[in-house]
Amino acid sequence: MRLKTDILVIGSGIAGLSFAIKASRYSRVLIITKKDSAESNTNYAQGGIATVISPNDSYKMHIDDTLDCGAGLCHRDAVEQIVTNGPELIKELIELGVNFSREEGKLELGREGGHSQKRIIHAKDLTGKEIERALLYSVTHNKNIKILEHHSAIDLITEHNFRRRTTKGKRNCYGAYIYDEKKNKILTVLSELTVICTGGIGQVYLHTTNPVIATGDGIAMGYRSGCRIGDMEFVQFHPTSLYQGISEGNNSQAFLISEAMRGAGAILRTKNGKKFMQRYDRRRSLAPRDIVARAIDNEMKRTGDDFVYLDCTPLSKRKIMHEFPNIYKKCLSIGLDISRSFIPVVPAAHYGCGGIISDLNGRTSLGRLFVLGESSMTGVHGANRLASNSLLEALVFADKASKVCEKDMVTANDKNHSNIPDWDASGTENTEEWILISQNKYEIKQIMSNYVGIVRSNLRLYRALRRIKLIREEIEVFYKKTRVNRELLELRNMALISYLIIRSALMRKESRGLHYSTDYPKTSKTFLKDTIISNKTV
Questions:
Q1: Which residues are part of the catalytic machinery?
Q2: Domains of the chain
């Protein structure tokens, strides 16, 4: 089956939805998403959006905080772009119906680690969910936008798919092959422009705050099609996810304890109740995430404990109930009244700072292909993302991309769609060997968690590389003879994402930001700006 659309958007988080709304003013937009349309990393973002609206704040302060957190790797032009465009786009969200928390009629501002001022706009502790609600309402009432749920992208369509291959010159994207999970069919979706907004990579680790759909699909598809990939070694571990024991399952999604709680006055303590962050950073519990996560990791290794505590008792119960009702309710459901008891927490994989390299308008190195949100490497985050800059980045780059795509639509009309074949499933068959998928998935998670986590070494990385290479080879053999399904697609992408993270980590001969190596414990004065990998075989 073949479908045609003006613009294909793969993913339904804040980047994909906000882009679609703006692009629908001049084109037909088709959104495909793996699960329900509301299932995305955006939906689980508790903290909020960082932006400058306080009279005590300034663009310069926000830019400086971002650059400082990024450990010398941020692209200043990209940082300046999101900071200076932020306030206007926040107004647009409010006009769209997003109900941010207010205090005496004014937007309530919180503070998180790495920020020098209160600048976090939030909707209590469910900011992402509230933004997603408003965006989805607008999308579903827009006649120029269509959403296909339970559809997984397999691969992008480029010149190498043509019956008459025309691979000279710049490669372009003409849409994607899409798997319809409900009907068990594969669609050929043809588009003038394609936008990847598939979110994060957290599911390659055992413990992650990301939903089960966060398997790095967009980045993997981009790499296979020849896109340049950058800075994959920088994986941010959120310092505080709720610890609920070690048997959390193969597809665990850890519950996030928002950084805003530390911004409000919560304190990190060891299992015996002692404060420890003063030994690691002058900002103590409000240090950036990489510092806090490494500190917790070190304390756990030093003491042999499985977790540390977050002490929220300095906050009044009224403040907790008002600002963090979702966290309070979740903890209460497991018998923990956080107004009187400490919260057991551990670091969990949270955000990938790397991805498909884009310019300031979301363009990739592949013609007619754009990338937005966590799938992209814009240069905003550098070696470590400043808290609550991710939703801001998604909003700003979606806005910029929508304006450029309007111009591109004038010249994008292509006559070669007849040369594009439908998906060829010949030689493949259904199999009952699904234990191979679940076993490989668990192996990948174990390898990445044990060898490519918060603290790394060359010994661990090379060991991980050997094992991931072998798993990738096994998966490719299995993939080529097996009928497509979502679990197999995700497994294939997870193996590739893991490989890219390890390769990038081995390229960086220093410790910087989120990448800490015991072989290179110091940050270099002369250093590799960005780790860039591209697929030379396409």
A1: 289
A2: 2-233+353-419 (3.50.50.60), 251-349 (3.90.700.10), 434-530 (1.20.58.100)
